[in-house]
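Model it.
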Amino acid sequence: MKEKKPNGYWNYDTCKEEAKKYKKRVDFQKACSGAYNVARINGWIDEYYWFEPAKTQKKWNYETCLIEAKKYTSRSEFQKGSNQAYFVARVNGWLEEYDWFERPIVHNKKWTYNTCKEEAKKYKSRTEFGKKCGGAYYAAIRNGWIEEYEWFEENKKLSGYWTQESCMEEARKYETRTTFYRGSYGAYKAAKKNGWIKDYNWFKEILKPQGYWNYDTCKEEAKKYESRGSFQKNCVRAYNLALKKGWLDDYDWFEESKTGKKWDYDTCMQEAKKYKSRGEFQKGSNGAYSVALQNKWLNDYEWFDKIDNTYKHKRGHCIYVYVWEKEKVAYVGLTHLKQQRHRTHMTKEESPVFRYSKDNGLPIPDPIYLEDKLAFEDAQNKEDFYIQRYREQGYDMLNSKPAGSVGAYGKGKWTYDTCKEEAKKYKSRGEFSISNQSAYRVARINGWLEEYDWFVENKKPSGYWNYDTCKEEAKKYKSRGEFCVTNGSAYEVARTNGWLDDYDWFEVKSGKWTYETCLEEAKKYKTRNELRKGCVSAYDVALKNGWLDDYDWFVQNQKPSGYWTYDTCKKEAMKYTSRNEFCIKCSSAYQTAKRNGWFEDYNWFEESKTRKKWDYDSCKKEALKYQSKGDFCKGNGSAYNVARKNGWLNDYDWFEKKNGFWNYDSCMKEAKKYTTKNDFHKNSSSAYTVALKHGWLVEYNWFEVAKKKWDYDSCKDMAMKYKTRSELKKASKGAYNAARKNGWLDEFFGKLKK
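Modeled.
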């Protein structure tokens, strides 16, 4: 058994030493995945110049995947050992054929001989059994019980029925090995066992090699079908490429082409009005649908059922923010692809985050995810809320377009004015879209199309938006942001004429509180918390304007930065009998001790004297003593952590759901457990979100502020305090990253330059 390394063992030096034992990356990964993963995550692996370059990509087909798969005993091993082969096999559905793979153990239900048989009696065939209950199906196959289910249609065949001729006859009903396997397992098994399956050369391989589809191959494939619909259904990759490249019009044998109907913006819209959703539109008139899809007109068909828009209603959108605290600058965004969007902000010139960072010589901070798993419309409203919130807190916002827009539109060449001037050349949206697609797209995304009242499609006559109509429209919304996003034309008219200030139902802070009135009010209280409870409006205005720091009579109990050392933490810890008591009474010292691994020295703690091993049953027994997750965590942190790590907390359905738990006091108490905003966000996202929403984060002045500019001298001064790269990284990630990027680490730690 391989010796388990202690936590934190793998640093720059130990990873490099370990890597020197191997000639290839793959050997390094297989032999020591722990070191490999640490090196890969930190970007050190590119420094291992002795690794042999990877060989040219192997062509994976049915046979080569099968040979490769036989090297492994499970799907997970196969994926780790040969990810490309695994991917091809999974896409083509060949994984199901690798019956030697170990099946993962299902903990929540154990499929025995009897339970499998009872489940199988509900179905008429193997295929139905496999589709409806895969767990029992595979257990029956793995143990050879499936042959006993004589009521299955496939099992009614007499012994010896599947000969070479009958197998071939059965196999001709299917286009791929996978469909043959699923549709007639008995024939498939016999054909595979006797080696006849190699003769079935009509079986298709679904996955074509990269670059296979071009003009000629797409055209050859298209000749097999009578219509665009059947082409799309049977070969979606070729169809999509042909649609994208505009080759479909060349396939004049298609039924749609024979009619001679030309689909433009207006004819597509007339056709689309016959249907309630995108799905119906596609089925009923695929030709019009394809043209509308290609030209991105589908978003204009507002009568389509909203539920039909998969993207917008997928609950996978999140709100994020990039914050430069020292400079009081922020950028709020919306995305459903976190990693891709972060990569864009890190590398692309069109990103305002990238440009601001580059122009000012500042590093790009890690994004903070404020809200997650939102539907698109909810995300739009939340984005606007947070943009306004940060503005109220005194941040300069890099956001230049309305909340809810996606990508960097409305900047550069096509602005509001240039789009409008361009649009005036055309009589309809269709003409505008065909003649200048880029301007049309920017105008559509930003909601400016509604303002082009000369367009035939726009119902509102010129001059429709006056004081009364704007006010009636504005009453539908709670905030300026929501009004702007939903009806940009009415909003713009109201803004231009200065009517927005009349909409007093909008969520806008009162101007009653000035510096003097806030000061007079604050003098009535001893602490910030008392002021917040006694007069929340004065508190919010003072917080937003940064006046709270002027109220020096407020009681502050915060320890200075760097106060908690090994000695001060130990001295504080000696006041308590358990970790839990230490955490509750002095969370800042507790977190420092936990982060540095000093708890092992506190042998007077009760947990250290009698360390209990927590399993599922003992955790559940312990959890029954408490009414909520919070009580459980406070009462027995070790049992709680074990239950949380193993995902058992969801089983404790007696716990109360405390949606309103996070208030000013509980957020502050929770925040005091951490030394940085990032730690707070990672470990207690719900409390962080509430604190951010209400503007309380500004008050957590014990949070460490990362040093933004690391030059050669400041990096060197910091590095001289530590013996190894690893120690420097733990103490100051900013200095470490700057030194690593600039190649100074070798100099600071006495290594020879490459």
